[in-house]
Specification:
By secondary structure, this protein is of the alpha+beta class. Helices cover 40% and strands 18% of the residues. Strands 1-2-3-4-5 form a five-stranded mixed sheet.
Length: 171
């Protein structure tokens, strides 16, 4: 890692790279996403201990949010800019969002939907969370969330997510 952007510069840098301000302001403050979208305390504690990770090599890193020991960060240098997800224990990128903030927000909303599948979230609550994230496609997304969960398996759900993201013109 080239440099961990200091916490006092974090918000302005993320906004400079296209992050919705409302999203940044609400990280750690959305009760419906309590354990999914946490403040970056963990990232600022752990990232200095893993500077040798290959996935961080040569990048300036701005933590976006924590999810336990998983991190979403923005990495950049002179030739690369990308949002990505990785775990503390693994030098591996799990999700590369390129610089697509809507794809990251879509992923958060999809996780929210999956976490609450048994409780059948209504459109009003789904939209409320989407607005707190700055995700303006939550109503359209909600209309597309009709996967028969008796057929649930990881591969089918991943294909379904891609299909929805394409219909929403996020991908």
């Amino acid at each position: 890692m080239k440099k961990l952007i200091p916490i006092d510069e974090r918000e302005s840098k993320l906004i400079e790279f296209g992050a919705p301000k409302i999203f940044i302001d609400n990280i750690g403050n959305i009760s419906e996403l309590e354990f999914r979208l946490e403040k970056v305390d963990g990232a600022y504690f752990y990232l200095p201990t893993i500077t040798d990770y290959e996935i961080l090599r040569g990048l300036n890193i701005i933590p976006i949010y924590d999810e336990g020991e998983d991190f979403r960060v923005f990495g950049y240098n002179e030739s690369i800019q990308k949002i990505f997800h990785f775990e503390l224990e693994n030098d591996k990128i799990y999700t590369d969002y390129d610089t697509n903030w809507n794809l990251l927000l879509f992923d958060i909303m999809f996780q929210y939907y999956e976490d609450n599948i048994d409780e059948e979230i209504d459109l009003v609550n789904f939209n409320k969370v989407g607005k707190k994230l700055g995700f303006d496609k939550s109503e359209s997304m909600y209309q597309l969330l009709d996967f028969p969960f008796e057929e649930y398996n990881y591969e089918k759900v991943q294909n379904w997510k891609i299909e929805i993201a394409k219909k929403l013109k996020i991908m």
